[in-house]
Structures are given as C-alpha cells and as structure tokens.
Predict the structure.
Amino acid sequence: MNLVQDVFSSRALNKWLPWLAALVLAAGVITFVAVKWTNTAKSIDTGATNKPAVLPKPEPPTTKLSPGVRRVASRFIATAVARKNLAEAWKISGGILKDGTTYKQWLAGDIAVVPYPASPDAGMQVSYSHRNEVELIFALQPRKGVKIKPQYFLMDLTRVGNVGHKRWLVTYWAPKSPPQIPAPAN
C-alpha cells in the first residue's frame, strides 16, 4: 500500500500527470471526430416501412394425383433412369434435367439424371400434389443380381402446355440421400 502512495505522491508523476491527462483527452477527441465525421459508409436500407407486411400467397390446394402423373413417372424411371429408350425419356423430361443439354447429348446418355438399376416394382409416396406441380418420393429396389442397396429418390413433375393440351414433364430427379456405393464382390 505504501508503494502505491509513494508513486502517486511522487513529484515527477505529479508534474507530468496533467500533461498525460491532456494527451489522453486529445486522443479521444481526435478519435471521436475521425469516426463521426469521416465515416463514408452508406447507410443500409433495411427495408423497414410503415406499410402493412406483404404476406406470401397461400400454398395451392392439394389435389388428387392424376393417373397421368403415375404413367409419366413410371416411364421416366423405365427410360431415363434405366438409360433405355432415351428418345422417349427426352419427350417426358424438362426443366433443369434438360437445361443446356442437346438432343444428341441426351441420346448419348450424357444427361442430368442419376441412373439406378431399378426393378419394376417401386414404392411411391406423394410428398405434395397440386394442380400443376407434384413431388414424389420413390423407394427403388435394385434389379435381381445387382449388388447395390435400395435408394430413395425425389421426383418433381410439372404440368405444361396450353389448355386442352396439357401434359406432365419430369423436371427434377435426384437421390434423397447420397448415392449408394456398390457392395464388394464376395
């Protein structure tokens, strides 16, 4: 305790203490001015307004799954996924599955469709079904003799075309989980 009293009662410290306090005050004023008046950042528009909030449109009503959806989904798995009759698969595919792909590339099998050696029997669950959009979840089993695990896939279909000429196209196909790795041969 005496050491602290000795330091603060020191003549040298008492001589320089006012100058040190003035220097700290000046540094604080300079820092304040530099931050306050030299800040060139533009103010951020948060989008806040006094207008009422715009609510999202409600989801379209759920509809019964049309037989056309089942037919197109089944044909897609038998053609595009199985890599058989890709010309037929081209006609029932759309959206991101065909974006940037030419017909020639498609026929060569260079397509954005994950293949799977599926047996004809596939379990299907409807994720949602609206008038012009459907999402299905497929539980595919491998064909006999193929050593690969069963796999879940997501399929989106969109109804396109003019009134009276509407048809369903598969617009999305991907594994619901990472692709399965073939089991090693025993």
Remarks:
- The CA atoms of residues 95 and 171 lie 5 Å apart.
- The first strand starts at residue 118 and ends at 129.
